[in-house]
Amino acid sequence: MSFLHVQGIHHTYFSKASATTALSDISLTVEEGEFVSILGPSGCGKTTLLSIISSLIKPSEGTVLLENKPISTSKNEIGYMLQQDYLFPWKTIEENILLGLKLSKQINDKTKSNALGLLKQIGLTGVEKQLPKQLSGGMRQRVALVRTLATEPKLLMLDEPFSSLDYQTKLKLEDLVSQILAEFGKTAILVTHDIGEAIAMSDRVFLFSSHPGRLHKTFHMPAELRRLTPFETRNHELFPSIFQMIWKELESLEQGNE
Fold first, then answer.
1. Which architecture, in CATH terms, is 31-61+74-256?
2. Can the keyword Heme be found in this entry's annotation (predicted)?
3. Is the dihedral of CA 248, 253, 256, 257 positive or negative?
4. pLDDT tens, residue by residue, 75-103
């Protein structure tokens, strides 16, 4: 049995005036320690699927199993990292990274020490007593990553976490996140609009079509790319051809929606 099993997911949003189907018959699996990305045109239900996998939304139809158990029973086993860091501006960096541990009642000397140690591991030494406004955007996203990892989730959901950063910071954080997740053996799902980012970071890329969202095609990244850092992958000779292949598929989907 796969680590994550998504089967027959269908979801419709209802309002007083209309019904909009966001996802139709989505079935996929993710193995433990795997990094997968979801790409697709606007309106293909990428974030809706993340919300369903996170049990924030109950699907109209279908099931999600994590380690062969319903996702609704997987409390504290899923971490979520968003486009915005959502750090509390009035709390110190230390207070922010320990918040998840406090809310989940996991806080103790060991978990606190581990969280502060992770802060140093990702290059943020001496910022514990500072406020978020004293840090750059890239530094705040690193803090958000530490806060997410502090509760030791088995599955990490990344919803366009680098899209608001400048390009250089984005490339550095791609490498850092990839390295940290590999070291901790974490399983991750990335939602992104960036084809290059999906190729550089992933073992597999799921391409969705839209209106409603369906799984259109799955791309398996070559083994020689998966051994490299995201930055190295972007400079590999295979990268341009894979980029063009996915670009053409995505373009055909978008033209089909016009």
1. 3-Layer(aba) Sandwich (3.40)
2. no
3. negative
4. 668 888 877 778 889 999 999 989 888 88
